[in-house]
């Protein structure tokens, strides 16, 4: 299972970015998907999650500004980030709770992570 995140960049305060994360591999099912972030010198923190049914949850510091969504057919999770602030600067990581099948026919359940995409909010 691999997760490929993209969409990070440099943006001015008040600007917007849209992150994407595609899951690939011999996937049987994807349950919850989410985004976390980690700023230099700080612990990784939860940003938002979305279930397979579309229920969402957000950290208080992004409520009203960020929107998480997913396209189950494309095995992709998105994070629309609006009204960005300098304190949103961090590496953003996607994850997914995945059930996959190995070549042996064995099923494996795991929480897989993407490689991170950098978001910098600066004037």
Estimate the strand proportion. Answer: over 45%
Return the string of H and E elements: EEEEEEEEEEE
- Total strands: 11
Biggest sheet, open or closed, and with what strands and sense? Answer: 7 strands, mixed
Which structural class is indicated by helix and strand composition?
A: mainly beta
Q: What overall form do the CA principal axes indicate?
A: elongated
> How far apart are the first and last residues' alpha carbons, in Å?
37 Å
Radius of gyration: 15 Å
Uncertain runs are: none
Number of helices: 0
Helix-residue proportion: under 10%
Average of the residue pLDDT scores: 96
Summarize the structure.
By secondary structure, this protein is mostly beta strands.
What do these coordinates show?
The chain has no helices and eleven strands. It is mainly beta and 123 residues long. The strands form two sheets. Strands 2, 4, 5, 6, 9, 10 and 11 form a seven-stranded mixed beta sheet that branches. A four-stranded antiparallel beta sheet has the order 1-3-8-7, with no helix packed on it. The termini are far apart.
Topology diagram in text:
Elements: E1 2-6, E2 9-11, E3 17-24, E4 27-38, E5 45-50, E6 56-58, E7 66-71, E8 76-81, E9 90-101, E10 107-113, E11 117-121
Parallel strand pairs: 2-11
Antiparallel strand pairs: 1-3, 3-8, 4-5, 4-9, 5-6, 7-8, 9-10, 9-11
């Amino acid at each position: 299972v691999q997760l490929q995140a993209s969409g990070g960049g440099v943006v001015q305060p008040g600007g917007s970015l849209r992150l994407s994360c595609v899951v690939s591999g011999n996937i049987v099912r994807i349950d919850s998907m989410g985004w976390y972030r980690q700023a230099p010198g700080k612990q990784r923190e939860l940003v938002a999650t979305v279930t397979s049914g579309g229920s969402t949850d957000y950290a208080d510091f992004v409520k009203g500004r960020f929107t998480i969504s997913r396209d189950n057919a494309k095995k992709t999770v998105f994070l629309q980030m609006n009204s960005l602030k300098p304190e949103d600067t961090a590496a953003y990581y996607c994850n997914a709770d995945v059930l996959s099948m190995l070549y042996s026919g064995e099923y494996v359940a795991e929480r897989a992570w993407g490689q991170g995409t950098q978001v910098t909010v600066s004037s």
